[in-house]
């Protein structure tokens, strides 16, 4: 929540109840504006606090009041539509109290690594790349929330139709994934009547990209708002896990490293995919140690497609083409043709 002095907003913390937040607002307002300040409760309710107010400077008192509050965090459902994040918060969540009092908020978005890849990266102490946003959390009016729900219903139906029409190759990879939940399943949870939500629009003021090593990179908010979703995004987690669960496809990835990167890989996992290609983490031989015995290390490689993949089918079409190409090259060099 915040208390205003002229045109300056002063953040004084987040609170568990509206009453606690209102009292904190009153205390700071009285210290800044005196006994004539606009308060939620009568000033005589704070007679016991007056001595402390007089002993401390305005800023010290604000900090003291802020220290009595707490910051609430929770996992929320979200979608990004045309570069604009929307949040679905359960009606009984404390955020629905805090956002009434203070509209400022922060929002972190990450795609957790599924299946065996997650265990590997955890052992290497690598975190999923993520986006950190800060901005204003603004409740959507009922008619706008209803309109957004209708759009999501259309997205859900469209995605379910696409899944039914996938080729055998795509369906096989998706079914191999340990994660069987699709985006349409998650949307059904939001659109169903099992739990009531309050819908918010997140007005982004700053955006930071954080890579797996913890490096931070500022992203222009305008670029975020005008960006288009990658056509593979809604299926990326299941595609990555489906490929990594397949021994045959991971063997093909080892051949990719040998043919395209001139590297002998003992094991390979896909870490990310997009319309232009995919990234892998390969276990390769590290420089020889002093005693001449080699060791292994995990190294990142990027493989690019000849053409951008406009959809999931085109992604797999080019992946299969690359698999056939490396198999033919290895067979030819070994005299097996």
From TrEMBL:
Keyword Transcription regulation found: yes
Major site of localization recorded for this protein: nucleus
GO molecular function: DNA binding; DNA-binding transcription factor activity
Compartments where found: Nucleus
AP2/ERF domain span: 1-42
Keywords, in A-Z order: DNA-binding, Nucleus, Transcription, Transcription regulation
Superkingdom in the source lineage: Eukaryota
Name this protein carries in UniProt: AP2-like factor
Species of provenance: Vigna unguiculata
Highest classification ranks of the organism: Eukaryota, Viridiplantae, Streptophyta, Embryophyta, Tracheophyta
């Amino acid at each position: 929540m915040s208390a205003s002095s002229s045109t300056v907003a002063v953040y004084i913390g987040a609170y568990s109840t509206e009453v606690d937040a209102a009292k904190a607002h009153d205390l700071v307002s009285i210290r800044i504006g005196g006994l004539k300040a606009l308060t939620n409760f009568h000033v005589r309710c704070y007679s016991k606090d007056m001595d402390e107010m007089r002993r401390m400077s305005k800023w010290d008192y604000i900090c003291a009041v802020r220290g009595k509050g707490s910051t609430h965090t929770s996992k929320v459902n979200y979608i990004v539509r045309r570069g604009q994040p929307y949040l679905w918060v359960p009606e009984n969540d404390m955020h629905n109290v805090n956002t009434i009092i203070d509209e400022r908020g922060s929002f972190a978005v990450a795609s957790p690594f599924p299946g065996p890849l997650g265990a590997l990266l955890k052992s290497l102490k690598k975190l999923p790349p993520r986006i950190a946003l800060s901005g204003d959390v603004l409740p959507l009016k009922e008619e706008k929330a209803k309109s957004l729900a209708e759009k999501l219903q259309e997205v859900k139906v469209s995605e379910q139709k696409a899944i039914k029409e996938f080729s055998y190759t795509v369906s096989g990879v998706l079914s191999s994934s340990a994660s069987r939940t699709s985006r349409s399943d998650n949307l059904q949870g939001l659109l169903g009547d099992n739990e009531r939500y309050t819908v918010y629009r997140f007005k982004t003021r700053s955006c930071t990209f954080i890579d797996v090593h913890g490096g931070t990179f500022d992203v222009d908010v305008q670029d975020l708002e005008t960006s288009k979703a990658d056509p593979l995004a809604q299926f990326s987690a299941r595609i990555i896990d489906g490929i990594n669960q397949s021994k045959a496809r991971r063997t093909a990835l080892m051949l990719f490293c040998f043919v395209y990167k001139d590297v002998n890989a003992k094991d390979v996992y896909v870490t990310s995919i997009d319309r232009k290609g995919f990234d892998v983490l390969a276990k390769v031989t590290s420089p020889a140690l002093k005693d001449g015995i080699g060791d292994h290390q995990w190294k990142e490689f990027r493989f690019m497609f000849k053409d951008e993949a406009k959809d999931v089918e085109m992604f797999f079409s080019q992946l299969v083409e690359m698999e056939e190409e490396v198999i033919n090259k290895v067979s030819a060099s070994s005299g097996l043709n």
